[in-house]
Amino acid sequence: MEKEIGNRNGEAISYGNLGALFQSIGQYDEARKYQEKALAIKKEIGNRNGEAISYGNLGALFQSIGQYDKARKYQEKALAMKKEIGDRRGEATSYGDLGTLFQSLGQYDRAQDCKEKALAMQKEIDDRKGEAISYGNLGALFQSIGQYDKARKYQEKALAMKKEIGNRNGEATSYGHLGVMFQSIGQYDEARKYHEKALDIQIEIGDRNGEATNYGNLATLFKSLGQYDNARGYQEKALAITIEIGDRNGEANSYGNLGTLIQSLGQYDKAREYQGKALAIQREIGDRRGEARSYGNLGVLFKSLGQYIQAREYLEKALAITIEIGDRNGEATSYGNLGVLFQSLGQYHKARAYQEKALAMKIEIGDRNGEATDYGNLGALFQGLGQYDKAREYQEKALAIRIEIGDRDGEATGYGYLGALFQILGQCDKAREYQEKALAFHIEIGDKRGEATSYENLGALFQSLGQYDRAQEYQEKALAMKKEIGDRNGEAISYGNLGTLFQSIGQYDEARKYQEKAFDIQIEIGDRSGEATSYGNLGTLFQSFGQYDKARKYKEKALALQIEIGDRSGEVTSYQGLGTLFQLLGQYDEAKVYMELALGMNNKIGDKNGVATSYGDLAGLFLSLGKFARADDYLKMAMAIRVGIGNRRGEAADYGHLGIISLRRGLYDKAQECQEKALAIHIEIGDRQGEIVDYLNLGCLSVLEVSQSHLEEASSYLCQSIEKFDTLRGSLKDSDQFQISLLEEHGAFPYQLLSRLLSSTRKSQEALYVEELRRARGLADLMTARYSVQEQISGNPQSWHGIQEIIRREVDCACLYISVGKNDVRFWILKGMGDVHFTEKTVSLEANVVTGLVPDLDEFFKESFRSLAILPEQNCEDRSLDDIELMPHHYDNRTVLRDHDAEDFKTNLHLCYKIIFAPVASLLKQPEIIIVPDSCMYQVPFAALADEGGKYLSETCRIRMVPSLTTLKCVQNSPPDYHSQTGALIVGDPEVGAVIYKERRTTMTPLLCARKEAEMIGRLLGVTPLIGDSATKHAVLQAINSVSLIHIAAHGDAERGEIALSPEHPTLLPPFPREEDYLLTMADISKTRLRAKLVVLSCCHSARGQIRTEGVIGIARAFLGSGARSVLAARWALDDTATEQFMTCFYKHLFRGESACESLHMARNWMRNNGYDKVSQWAPFMLMGDNVTFDFATWPVPTPP
Questions:
Q1: Coil vs helix vs strand at 46
Q2: Total domains present in the chain
Q3: What are the start-end ranges of the H helices in 225-287?
Q4: In terms of domains, do 986 and 872 share one?
Q5: Does 168 score more than 70 pLDDT?
Q6: Which residue ranges does the record assign to the CHAT domain (predicted)?
Q7: Is the predicted pLDDT of residue 796 greater than 50, yes or no?
Q8: Domain range holding 412?
Q9: Could you give the CA distance from residue 54 to residue 59 in angstroms, rounded to a whole number?
Q10: Dist CA 553 CA 555 (whole Å)
Q11: Which of 114, 228, 998, 1041 is deepest in the core (most CB within 10 A)?
């Protein structure tokens, strides 16, 4: 219309408006075309003011697309023209626009100068609207350079003025700016409040573009808080609006933000797709600054995936564009990103050069927040290089700036970094202080992701201190939080951390489960670097339990992947790991090759700590080869570096190794001096595990010295080692599994050594107390907690008294206490009158027929009766979970069954009698023997041991087992009213049906005799048994904690004796119940508080479990630990028919008022004399714990048949 009526000025204004419209929706070419048409007309008609406005509009347009030189040229033309024509308002606007341009370029001093000129001019001419805008612009400037107090003051002034003049759109903008500012300093509640106010106004006034911006701001806020679902919802709303209104620039930004968000969740393919979309739009609309940002985002994404070549390519593209367009802040950011990348690649010199460029630039442009980030990055770099003093200096500079500018989130991060550094230096108290500060900050500001990181860091710290229960607690908190916020990559890291934790305490099954979970996630999300790490972790795990072929395969996969993706640091780790593996295999030349490759690479990348590690590895290798001088040289070089960089834990390790070298060279004084130095450092840094090992080494050293005068010193050191171990163990009382693993990993040897040392010096009673300290300690803790009684014995020798009184309280009993060595057995016989007799026997076994090797005695006891796990196939059913129909979903399979009454089995029974009973038979004349076996002996069927005439031990006496005398004392001291006197839970033949067992479909066959057995006992006791589909796991757990007698006849697991019950809904069709739906586990029992006097586990393998120093870790132990006074359990697989007969006889005697031990004795005799004369039929059961009796006369039961 303006053209039609010939209004040239109006036509120019319309062109300008169209240009502004196209710019707002990201169509920059169209915008430029229309703005240039407007400029041409204004020039033609001599409209100087309009011409100046067009120059300003074109300047803003070129700034939007990152063409800063052109933007500046046009803005300066606009300013000059406005000055010339005396347009003070326009002059102020131009100063403001130039200020924003200089801010984009990172020229903050010039930006501030221009913005302050604009503000002064607007105040002078009383331009309230312009004044408010200038306050807002200055606020944004101060925020970008980390001066948050000033930023807040100016933004609040802008807000107040916009409210005063009724500028609703401007008011919303100010609320948004304040929200971003509060978010920057970690005040997330305030940030959310302001963003929501901004959003409400923009929705109210219909500002769709502003609405999209605020949805994006809220998304960024929720991402910072780790609330990824909320963040994604808001970001997708922002994207939808930008697409709807045709805002191409906003659309690109939303795709980029979504890509960064999705990357945080470990969804890398989707993240790449979104970043690619953002980049495509930015290239299409000519947005050079946005293009650089997208290249940077893609570079960071590829780095996360371990695709380092592509990462470098994209980060260098981002850098090139920022240099080209003069974006100083963006250039500094690109240098920082490249520095982090090169650090990941182990190229530390390049990394340092780039980080220092980034830092110099941030300091030059006055960006305090960026300066803090770069100090932190350099701190992390120096830490990686083992330059700990510099690392601390830079991290403390970063922290100081963050405190100064009020950045709460950054402050928390800084405390976390310093905590990790102090941990490496062995300053564990400081490490904990800083990590707990970081955690408190993250919780206070609501940062879920940061909170998870702090839990992870604290978990690692407690693991390094040997506080494994707390380590597990914190790592599990981290994992739970990462799952909650949907952080898949973080979830994988947490699984890996838990795997490493369980590996460190010897729980290899758990370790493998967690490492494989980590690996699966990393494959799923495409994290190549994480995949390599998982291969390496799995390799180390397989190495730990001797599967060296698998270990090598996984470590080589890790190495190949690290070489492929260019991960130099990971490559070094793999070389070191392979070197250690080949050394274990005795392939010393191969080991040396890999260790020297690691050393060379560490030297090349300048990693001092890594060089020290490589020297230490080579020292260990030469020590294995007996080349002590070379080993000594390498250790001294390692120690020199560690002392120089302040690595106290590494220094202690080097002293320990030097002590070993000195010992091997016969330099006992030197060896002792080195061990004492190691001990002093471990005490100083609070490493209790290290202390235990040092005291043990000092004890061993004293034992090895020739002079008898050193035995006293050796005993002292070993006692100190045990006391330290006891203190550490005491801190784990709430975690049974960690106590068990800790004893296995660090505690067994000092107890064994001290016990032998004491018995060799005729201190047999003291030796017995030391033996007792390593027997069933975890179980004793569980029992004392259940009964609320005090455990008297500890690592302090002052508590070693009163053990004889335990047997005094038993009637007509003697106790046989056994300790097994590699080729000898030690015996203590405790009598009811308080006498303690000690003797020992050296044993010479014959060579194994197959291997030709002479087995150690402990291995002989462990292996001799393994064949009892499976019964020969008969017409009746076996109650073993491992002999049922077990198959994959499409495959049939049955276990090969063996005869375990074979001749070699009988030979072993006789040999065990000769070893265990013959030497002490004359001292064991009482009618009942309580046996405290060593852990390797739990599968020995003591009742079936036969003398030369073929007479079984159980024919001459009653036999009962106790895990330790302390556990027996716990039962003796339990409160009189603790155990229930009446009531029974009888379970038989649960209907299990088809279930998933050990990841395969399993159909469990009915146990008809188990059903009859339960019905018989039910009739006898007047109790309705749980049979078939009524014997559910839920029903059993509901009834189990109040009754006096528990009897379960069901299928049992061969590994730990865990019991198959009925799921809530048995089925033969998928989906099949999982183990947690039907399997009664150790964990289930451990959570209950039992009141039972007797638990009868008429299930296969119910006495089995992992054989550890603690004892047998299985379902029977779980029942004792949860409060059962006595447990009758089976060592091996049960014949269903024979077991029914056995139990009929057992309960017949028990019902008459005879004790459990006497009833067991009578049942065995009856079985042998009534056609069940195979050992597998009459001898599977063992009684553990107290010898209980029942007064069934008080029960409402019918007269027995």
A1: coil
A2: 3
A3: 228-245, 248-264, 268-285
A4: no
A5: yes
A6: 913-1186
A7: yes
A8: 408-486
A9: 8
A10: 6
A11: 114
